[in-house]
Backbone:
């Protein structure tokens, strides 16, 4: 009973930490925060208790996965060997970036014919009413649930350029908690699929809560608009000229993101190598983050020994990625052995791992924005990199707390 109470109280601790990192504490809309947190708890109960709730999310994910499989047809034609990596888990460039060569032009075409702005306007209006966010940010939270952070940023270029730097920063914070539909299937082969599917909508609501607190934005009604690629009275660009520019833009963006991610991952490895020169085997970024995350793991409802194990897995995920940890724990968590004989541990860690929140994701997001928005807006986002990492961690912790509360 004590751990259940601690787990529940952890939700308020994570919200409090987000408040400490807020750039405008007086402007936080606590009514909206309360509504979305309550909704997240209801969804946590719903997805942890009813399999048909998970089937709804899986159906949507399968639709986006189908789109990625279509993109893979083009990849297989040009680069067939890239679709079957020797590592045993998806190739980053193939699974997360190259599908953008289909996804970005497809969304640009929907924008060109006016369909996407219409969808954003109406879905955003409904979600905005519930969450209190501007229409585009509300729609973005759902869009990012399946497209992934690079794709969802790439398909929204006209909107980003019309928005302020602060609103772009909101979307950067939210993007830290994306996944992509093409990878969901890989996740479910390594960790319990029911918890993976539950994490997807929980991360959406968690991202809304944390970004609303850390970067409260209030805009006038005339600013809350959905941008079309065509300006009023402007002559429409010929379709194939427009399509060519879209494909070229997607290709440039892939190169920028790839270079940025390689640099970020290599820099993290360099720091670890420098630590190794001290002769202290325990000194590494993974262990440092494990120690930092220990109290938060304990707050999720574990005894100290279990909490330390979970914290180390969490730290490893932040420094490397979720696939490294999933591969390490897969046998035990799928068999319910060792730490994972406790269903609560399985649920909490799986939900925490189901997001792209890590160092390399920061590089992906910065690279995406660099290829999309002006230097001024990109510099504003780059100046808030620590807050982006904090936001990603807090969303994962909040989602894990809401899911774990209903699994013991």
Residues:
């Amino acid at each position: 009973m004590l751990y259940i109470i601690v787990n529940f109280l952890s939700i308020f601790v994570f919200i409090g930490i987000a408040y400490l990192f807020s750039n405008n504490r007086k402007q936080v809309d606590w009514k909206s925060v309360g509504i979305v947190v309550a909704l997240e708890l209801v969804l946590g109960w719903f997805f942890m208790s009813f399999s048909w709730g998970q089937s709804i999310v899986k159906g949507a994910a399968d639709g986006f996965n189908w789109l990625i499989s279509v993109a893979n047809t083009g990849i297989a034609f040009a680069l067939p060997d890239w679709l079957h990596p020797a590592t045993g888990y998806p190739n980053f460039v193939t699974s997360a970036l190259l599908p953008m060569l289909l996804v970005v032009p497809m969304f640009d075409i929907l924008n060109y014919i006016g369909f996407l702005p219409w969808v954003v306007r109406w879905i955003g209006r409904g979600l905005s009413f519930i969450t209190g966010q501007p229409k585009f940010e509300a729609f973005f939270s759902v869009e990012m649930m399946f497209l992934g952070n690079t794709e969802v940023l790439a398909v929204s270029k006209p909107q980003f350029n019309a928005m302020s730097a602060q609103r772009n920063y909101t979307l950067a914070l939210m993007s830290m908690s994306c996944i992509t539909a093409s990878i969901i299937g890989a996740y479910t082969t390594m960790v319990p699929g029911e918890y993976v599917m539950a994490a997807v909508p929980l991360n959406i609501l968690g991202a809304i809560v944390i970004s609303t607190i850390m970067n409260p934005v209030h805009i006038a009604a005339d600013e809350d608009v959905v941008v079309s690629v065509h300006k009023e009275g402007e002559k429409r660009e010929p379709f194939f000229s427009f399509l060519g520019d879209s494909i070229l833009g997607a290709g440039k963006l892939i190169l920028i993101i790839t270079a940025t991610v390689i640099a970020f991952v290599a820099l993290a490895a360099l720091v670890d190598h420098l630590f190794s020169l001290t002769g202290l085997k325990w000194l590494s970024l993974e262990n440092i983050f494990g120690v930092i995350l220990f109290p938060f793991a304990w707050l999720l409802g574990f005894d100290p020994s279990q909490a330390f194990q979970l914290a180390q897995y969490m730290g490893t995920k932040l420094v490397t990625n979720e696939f490294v940890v999933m591969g390490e724990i897969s046998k035990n968590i799928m068999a319910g052995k060792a730490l994972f004989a406790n269903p609560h541990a399985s649920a909490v860690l799986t939900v925490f791992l189901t997001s792209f929140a890590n160092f390399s994701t920061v590089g992906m997001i910065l690279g995406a924005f660099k290829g999309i928005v002006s230097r001024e807006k990109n510099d504003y986002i780059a100046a808030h990199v620590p807050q982006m990492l904090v936001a990603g961690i807090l969303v994962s912790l909040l989602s894990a707390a809401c899911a774990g509360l209903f699994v013991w």
The radius of gyration is 21 Å. The mean pLDDT is 81. The chain has one domain: 2-226+238-404. Residues 239-276 form the longest helix (38 residues).
